[in-house]
């Protein structure tokens, strides 16, 4: 191999054929002030998505513990977006140039990883990979902006890892303000160019029920970002859970499976709970979701691989863990809302539907028009 294929600080996209230098299109400075009536009358385009439903334009933190697979995930997404294929092998994405700053990798390692991820497919020319870049305050912002000017159709920039780009904290400011300023460099680029900027980051060693508090550093990091994605290890059939929340992204959880042979993360079908519990619980959840109001006997009849006692004990534990809801007659539902709207309660003595005292039909009034909780007439909205 002759020479370094990726020279340091080189952010110029290599063209397959030489062409005359073109003047990059000039971008108007985004407007930042309106009167209230002007703002309400203005029409704004919908946010552009790098990965629909998961990565929108703006700054997204992708955080996770060491060796969980963040770099595999981010490189796989970069390849998918640059090629205009499918993210996670299931989410169609619109193609466009992508800049990937692999600041902890060597060209050899990147080549090996991409070879596994591509699986013999042609590498997309729209993906630019860089192994060295100055921090944001020392020229990094200008270098990335220059690449974006030369690639006006760019859809995403990935910075792996954020710590390599943030630079030294300004003197005399709090840790929160320093973190906010550091993410602010990426935020200005994302907003000005209307692209997704992904900052690969770490989480704290101490786990938390709120995944946002696990992001390493102060709350200034997550506070300055538009979205936060935390990749955590999981149990059961899933190898990881991707927790997502943000300003333009609905809060959600996605169960993922890591394919060791290809290095790719795959999106698993169905709710996360189906993939993070043991096989027996997953089977029970699937059956109850399809048959709200099922009794342990019904479940046991449908799942011959588990005996009735095991099903009964497991259902009880799942209800205690909040994975199922149970009514007074021993029937199970996938959640409380379904239970309140589900099958009528049945008498354990006669197997006939039970009519509660507050639901008994009065003269001139239909039973189904009464709320079982308040006795309010739900059709007319008046008390009986």
Topology:
Elements: H1 36-41, E1 49-51, E2 55-56, E3 58-64, H2 70-83, E4 86-87, E5 91-92, E6 98-102, H3 107-118, E7 127-130, H4 140-150, E8 156-160, H5 163-166, H6 175-193, E9 196-202, H7 219-224, E10 227-233, E11 240-246, E12 252-259, E13 264-267, H8 273-276, H9 279-290, H10 296-302, H11 308-320, E14 325-326, E15 332-333, H12 336-341
Parallel strand pairs: 3-9, 3-10, 6-7, 6-8, 8-9
Antiparallel strand pairs: 1-2, 4-5, 10-11, 11-12, 12-13, 14-15
Helix pairs in contact: 2-3, 4-6, 10-11
Please provide a written account of the structure.
There is one protein chain. With 384 residues, the chain is α/β, with parallel strands linked by helices. The radius of gyration is 27 Å and the shape is globular. It has helices at residues 36-41, 70-83, 107-118, 140-150, 163-166, 175-193, 219-224, 273-276, 279-290, 296-302, 308-320, 336-341; strands at residues 49-51, 55-56, 58-64, 86-87, 91-92, 98-102, 127-130, 156-160, 196-202, 227-233, 240-246, 252-259, 264-267, 325-326, 332-333. Strand 1 (49-51) and strand 2 form a beta hairpin. Helix 2 (70-83) packs across helix 3, helix 4 packs parallel to helix 6 and helix 10 (296-302) packs across helix 11 (308-320). The chain has a 9-stranded mixed β-sheet with strand order 7-6-8-9-3-10-11-12-13. The termini are far apart. The chain contains 12 helices and 15 strands.
